[in-house]
Amino acid sequence: xxxxxxVAMIRNLIHSPSMRPALxxxxxxxxxxxxxxxxxxxxxxxxxxxxxxxxxxxxxxQTMSYHGAPWLIRETRDEEENxxxxxxxxxxxxxxxxxxVGCGNGFYSLQLAKLVGPEGRVLAVDIQPEMLELxxxxxxxxxxxxxxxxLSTQADPNLPAGEVDLILLVDVYHExxxxxxxxxxxxxxxxxxxxxxxxxxRMEDPAVPIKLLHKMTKQQIRKEYNAxxxxxxxxxxxxxxxxxxxxxxxx
Length: 251
Ligand SMILES: C[S@@+](CC[C@H](N)C(=O)[O-])C[C@H]1O[C@@H](n2cnc3c(N)ncnc32)[C@H](O)[C@@H]1O
Description:
Blueprint: H1 4-14, H2 20-33, E1 54-55, E2 58-59, H3 69-72, H4 77-81, H5 83-90, E3 97-101, H6 107-116, E4 121-126, H7 129-141, E5 147-151, E6 164-170, H8 179-189, E7 190-202, E8 215-216, H9 218-226, E9 230-236, E10 242-249
Parallel strand pairs: 3-4, 3-6, 4-5, 6-7, 7-8
Antiparallel strand pairs: 1-2, 7-10, 9-10
């Protein structure tokens, strides 16, 4: 498991320009895909089956630890993933209720908060309290006060029923240990025309430099979402590394 000291050391090394490309790669591999499995809250009440490690023929990835949070706000993210394009494709409107499920330290939540404006709200959901603390600090530093952090469980995002206009899932769905429960709970939280926007690294593209366990094909995504009462309503194919697919209620 990588600890705070290691993260600090890596941060210092990153400041050396000649080391940066190689180190960023090593940091990504170590922080995202290394480490022992960790226990996360599953459900406050009631019994759940054990977390899945496979769903519909796909192996489920481990949760990214909060120790890896600096990677989510790395300098190179703009160039690698073009998040501006992703945000534009969401077509967020002022006053909306938007949920950022698996928000991490708030890379997207902070941007969404500006788009929905003071009359809207961002529900920032994560299973790791440490991630939510980082998000709160970043929001406070930016003077943003329309983000509501929500500590969720692995099986339930704890979102209000029927109220959410848009749920954003960036680089998290493939980590869900209870994918059907999460999909059904998110579906129930959608407003009548609400959408789930899913961004996952493209499995079909070998040039995307991400481990296979953290990538998905469009076909696999459709299979899993269709099996849980969700239908594809729109796609945006203009991102450098990721699929961006929009789902609504099938009926
Ligand atoms: C790879 S990070 C992505 C963070 C953020 N979406 C971004 O793009 O910067 C995945 C995050 O999802 C969270 N996560 C994993 N499973 C979750 C679940 N079932 N519900 C909510 N959050 C979850 C992890 O704790 C982690 O913070």
